[in-house]
Amino acid sequence: MKLTETVQTADWKAEKHVPFLEAKREGNLLHIKAFVGEEIAHPNTLEHHIAWIKVFFKAEGAKFPIEVGSYEFKAHGEDEVFSIPEVEVSIQTEKAGEVYALSYCNIHGLWENSIEA
């Protein structure tokens, strides 16, 4: 089995795993926000949590996407401190393209989403 065959794109049960994406352009700056749990918060415990989110941008006409951010969430209840699986990154580009996000739940695996930007 290829790793790409393990990536999921649709939610199931009552939890949200698919990273939600927003992209806003201001001139040649592209502001990107990626987070998990738009409608229903994902559990955030040591036993069940979002461990990381990666953000990619594929410029129009480019062959491959470029990783523009990689974020690990380390606090899952120690001393009642919890990381929120939400990140923002800004990139400089005049080109339109597609933004991708990949998130990892320690129980339910890899999840992806993409939007035009």
Q: Main attributes?
A:
single chain, 117 residues, mainly beta, 4-stranded antiparallel beta sheet, 3-stranded antiparallel beta sheet
Report what the structure shows.
It is built from no helices and seven strands. The strands form two sheets. The protein has a four-stranded antiparallel sheet with strand order 4-3-6-7, with no helix packed on it. It has a three-stranded antiparallel sheet with strand order 1-2-5, with no helix packed on it. The model has no long low-confidence stretch (mean pLDDT 93).
Short description:
Pfam families: Desulfoferrodox. 0% of the residues lie in helices and 49% in strands. The protein is mainly β and 117 residues long.
Write the layout of secondary structure elements.
Blueprint: E1 19-26, E2 29-36, E3 50-59, E4 66-72, E5 86-92, E6 97-105, E7 109-116
Antiparallel strand pairs: 1-2, 2-5, 3-4, 3-6, 6-7
Organism: Anaerococcus kampingae
Family: Belongs to the desulfoferrodoxin family.
Domain Desulfoferrodoxin ferrous iron-binding: 10-113
Order of helices and strands: EEEEEEE
The largest sheet, given as strand count, sense and whether it forms a barrel, is: 4 strands, antiparallel
Structural class: mainly beta
Rg over CA atoms, rounded to whole Å, is 15 Å
Distance between the termini: 32 Å
Count of helical segments? 0
